[in-house]
Amino acid sequence: MAIQDNSSQNRWSSRWLFVLAAAGSAVGLGNIWKFPYIAGENGGGAFVLIYLVCIALVGIPIMISEVLMGREGRSSPIHTMRTLAKKAGRSERWALLGWLGVITGFLILSYYAVIAGWALNYVWLTANGTFDGASADSVAQAFTDLQADPLQMIAYQTAFMVVTIWIVGRGVTAGLEKAIQWFMPALFILLIVLLIYSFNSGGFAQGWAFMFDFKWEAVGPEAWLIAMGQAFFTLSLGMGTMMAYGAYVPEDAKLSTTVVTIALLDTLVAIAAGLAIFPIVFANGLEVSQGPGLTFVTLPLAFGQLPFGALFGAIFFVLISFAAITSAISLTEPALAYLTEEYNAKRQRVAISLGVVCWLLGLGTVFSFNIWSDIFIVGELNFFGFVDYLSQNIMLPLGGMLITIFAVWLLPKEMVNRQLGISSTAMFWAWRIVAGIVAPLGVLAIFVFTIWPLVRSLFNL
Hints:
Elements: H1 15-26, H2 29-41, H3 45-73, H4 77-87, H5 95-127, H6 136-148, H7 150-169, H8 172-199, H9 204-212, H10 221-234, H11 241-246, H12 255-283, H13 292-305, H14 309-343, H15 347-368, H16 383-410, H17 413-420, H18 425-458
Helix pairs in contact: 1-8, 1-12, 1-14, 2-12, 3-4, 3-10, 3-12, 3-16, 3-18, 4-5, 5-7, 5-13, 5-14, 5-15, 5-16, 6-13, 7-8, 7-14, 7-15, 8-12, 8-14, 9-12, 10-18, 13-14, 14-15, 16-18
């Protein structure tokens, strides 16, 4: 298939490549450290069960809504929303929902590239034996030194952005598909290698118990909200990515089973990552509840004490880098698709322009860890904290909630039935109840839960 400048002319060459691309978008740093940690702290196996329920009732319905709208519109999220609004006889202002997704993804990419740059740096540091036999203080100091050095952070941020823009600039088949065909199998292989290594570390039984023992006493209302939030965020919902990728889905692909496959792959990677990480942590008697510090402080310390630790530590950070690249190319695609359509511009030129703007915006995140660390935008949020909070806690859930409401209640019934292959009234109403009522209420709960602390601090409530 020849590459066309107009993104609406592109198609995934197979359903499976779309599955890998969407799974690549969903799999990121949050899968590697966040899901295993929150599972262990919120009931273990009980939390995993709750999470799967939330994936089924919140994550999957919203993803199906995004993908079906993308395939029906066959263009960028902004043009898709404008087109579908016309078909449904609704206001063209719904195109603002497409803009919301595009801007959200762009904001996330601006700081995601900086964090991914840390992983690239740690591939080198781990491989050259920097952490071999190192003390806890020296490992922590290495992370502190990285954050305090804006030039070093900018160098790795730039390297990551160059790779991302080079991939997306080549188009769907020559760029996105080729990258997915290489990165996703490599990611799975690296994860399997780490699982085998972890199994022989001496702490596998503890790691398994941490994640899967059913601790119902640790489950409360907050655990349900955390599970819903993770189910929503881990699938890259509300940022236009799935709508943009959905525009390239072949007509013969069955959306419901395809999306379920994507969700299962994403969840399996998260669980496998936990089983690869926590046995190593427990085997070395280290603290598990450190968030990003687990990735950049605790694990390098652990690998530094183990046989062949430099090799497997480098593999771990290559794994994270691959996951970050597959997520980054999906964050770029919605804005890129819109600009190539709107201005009939060459994809490579648009990709470079977007990359430069995103890189400049990312400098704010770089400086938030050093020269701007004492400059606050709102309350105690510096530039990075503000962009992260705005995009993750406000724009993403708002976009996801509006997308599923539009898909379920405003699109013509015939259009939805055709895209989803719904053939009975019972199936249609089951879809409406789950996707049109349960999923939006779940996202609304996430929205209120995450924004309330900021409101309370701003107004001294």
